[in-house]
Amino acid sequence: MKDKITYSEAKLIFDKYLKTEYLRFHSRESEVIMRKLANKLGENEEFWGITGLLHDLDIDVINGDYSKHGYKTVEILSDEGFNVPKMFFAIISHTEGIEGNDAKRETKLDYCLAAAENLTGLISAYVLMRPDKKIAGTKAKSITKKFKSKSFAASVNREFINDITKVTDLQRNEFFQLAIDAMSEIADEINM
User: Average pLDDT of 90-98?
Assistant: First the structure.
């Protein structure tokens, strides 16, 4: 078993298991936000990025059984020959509170992954309602306004997004801008 996953290995596994376009976009968005967070926080950018890329690897194979979400990703990665405990725990704990998952976020990585991957949903929903459906020109204050509207992108876990302030010095608006900037860098790839 290998205790590290290179980006090229992660990309091969990602391409092998995750086929649904919007999930692939979401995973790439999570990756780039995690990379920006790691850079800002002095963490390992590649490791955090790979964790973001692979966090929803199992969605196309669990057939809607979310009690397996995260756990199945760890199983897939183990079957592929990897054992990366910190990454595995972050992937499992990003689904904290889902039926069948009693893992609780503990580390900065865990909290940041849960916050980043939820924020992609809020930003994507906002961009889709814009007339041009482009992220260019999106402002943190616009995301904040939608964040406060509980009915907008209702499935987004706002508590997990807010929890970024528990483990970092980032203010929520600063986090929103960091995420917008990260997603803007891959706008063409994710059709935004």
Answer: 91
Residues 145-161: tens digit of each pLDDT: 999 999 999 999 999 99
The whole-angstrom separation of Cα 135 and Cα 143 is 11
pTM for the whole thing? Answer: 0.96
Give the pLDDT score at 9: 98
How far, CA to CA in Å, does 97 sit from each of 66, 94, 100, 159?
11, 9, 8, 12
Q: Could you tell me if 51 and 90 are in contact, meaning their C-beta atoms sit under 8 angstroms apart?
A: yes
Sign of CA dihedral 170, 24, 154, 125: positive
E strand map for 8-139: none
CA triple 81-20-91, angle to 5 deg: 45
**Both structure tokens of 5:** 């996953």
**Alpha carbons 71 and 75: distance in angstroms, whole number:** 6
List of domains in the chain: 7-184 (1.10.3210)
